Amino acid sequence: GLCCPGRDPACLSVGWRPDGSHGPCYCDQACARTLDCCHDYAEACPVIPCVVSQWSVWSGCAEPCKTTYRIRRRHVIREPRNGGEACPPLEERAGCVEYWTQQGTECKQSLIPALITTGGFGKARKKRAAADGKERAGYCVEFQLVAITPGCLQSHHSYTHWMQYLREGHTVCVECQHPALDSRSLHCYGDGSGSKKNQLLHWQAVGNAQCKGTWKRIRQLDTCSCPSVHSFLFI
């Protein structure tokens, strides 16, 4: 009737030992290591491992409009006994970003990665917008480049040469012009509006999926003042 967890010197009985002698023997979990179990310990106190259920489905993001986490859980079906394998973790978390609020409205722009291309396309955009009479007042955002992937230097196509001027620590100007300028929000996606000071924001170069990185928003201006090689456009 004895089956004691852990090491318990009081979990003592008298009976036959595994070596065939008769006398004091133990029925705690430690007896298997100290080799002084009673002869029927394995049958009377079998090792029973923990049994858990399957994982639940993943939950939604813990909070909308933030880089946060989602959760899945499982529960214990049978507790371990007599030195059986312990239960594994019952909860797992994974990174999660939700771009829509619970009311179905879009989150702040700071969460959306910016798609950028060379500012050389800007003049053509302005001419086209002026021709159809739909030009809206744009603006410029200054960013400080924090991190750049090596892929920006590894592409040799003529339309990706502008990416080679991207340098960590440099300040760049990104123009928000029609048609990238959203008519409802009056912002370009990924412009970092609503972001906190020194918050790392993500950007992606159009034309080379391996060229991307992070930057910090400095300020918004009516017009850009960066050199042409450091001037870009929101897409």
From TrEMBL:
<keyword id="KW-0732">Signal</keyword>
<dbReference type="InterPro" id="IPR039942">
    <property type="entry name" value="SBSPO"/>
</dbReference>
<keyword id="KW-0325">Glycoprotein</keyword>
<protein>
    <submittedName>
        <fullName>SBSPO protein</fullName>
    </submittedName>
</protein>
<feature type="domain" description="SMB">
    <location>
        <begin position="1"/>
        <end position="50"/>
    </location>
</feature>
<dbReference type="Pfam" id="PF19028">
    <property type="entry name" value="TSP1_spondin"/>
</dbReference>
<keyword id="KW-1015">Disulfide bond</keyword>
<dbReference type="InterPro" id="IPR001212">
    <property type="entry name" value="Somatomedin_B_dom"/>
</dbReference>
<dbReference type="InterPro" id="IPR044004">
    <property type="entry name" value="TSP1_spondin_dom"/>
</dbReference>
<dbReference type="InterPro" id="IPR036024">
    <property type="entry name" value="Somatomedin_B-like_dom_sf"/>
</dbReference>
<dbReference type="Pfam" id="PF25031">
    <property type="entry name" value="SBSPON_C"/>
</dbReference>
<dbReference type="InterPro" id="IPR036383">
    <property type="entry name" value="TSP1_rpt_sf"/>
</dbReference>
<dbReference type="InterPro" id="IPR000884">
    <property type="entry name" value="TSP1_rpt"/>
</dbReference>
<dbReference type="InterPro" id="IPR056801">
    <property type="entry name" value="SBSPON_C"/>
</dbReference>
